[in-house]
């Protein structure tokens, strides 16, 4: 018959999977609080290309360490004598570290779009990677907000007229 400590593994695993599933998704409409009141400048242009990209957050190691500690504590409660608890703790720490790393990676992953924008002023092309909850399309006029990070914003109105030089 399984010991009561074995029954702790299932809720912990389910809690970890639930946390990964409910992790906040990276959204372009989310701005860090330090950006409030910061001055940025705008460049205007037209989207001339777009391609889907996978977004991946950098691995900080926090998930692995947290999972390892939790797994070690839970694993050390398994077994009868000190040897079984020691083996359970080591195996629990290893499995917890792997699980925590996987959960951290899944929580920071998502889908984005790399937009190519042709700038009105210079005619040069720049790229901006972001999520596309605004539904931007190729051919659409945008403003690029350049501040703490670059973001596309829907621009109102057509492209400005560039005067044609007159040769005499």
What does this protein look like?
With 168 residues, this protein is an alpha+beta fold. The protein folds into 2 domains: 1-23 and 57-107, no CATH class; 31-56 and 110-160, Beta Barrel (OB fold (Dihydrolipoamide Acetyltransferase, E2P)), CATH 2.40.50. The chain has helices at 9-21, 62-75, 82-107, and strands spanning 41-55, 110-119, 125-130, 141-146, 150-154. It has a 5-stranded antiparallel beta sheet, with no helix packed on it. Strand 2 (110-119) and strand 3 form a beta hairpin. Helix 1 runs parallel beside helix 3 (82-107). The radius of gyration is 25 Å and the shape is rod-shaped.
The global form is rod-shaped
**Which assembly state applies to the chains in this document?**
single chain
Number of strands: 5
Largest sheet: 5 strands, antiparallel
Number of self-contained structural domains: 2
Low-confidence stretches: 20-25
Content-based structural category: alpha+beta
The Cα radius of gyration reads: 25 Å
**Order of helix and strand elements from N to C terminus:** HEHHEEEE
What is the strand arrangement across the widest sheet? 3-2-1-4-5
Which fold name fills CATH's third level, the topology of the largest domain? OB fold (Dihydrolipoamide Acetyltransferase, E2P)
CATH level 1 class label of the largest domain: Mainly Beta
Number of helices: 3
Arithmetic mean pLDDT: 76
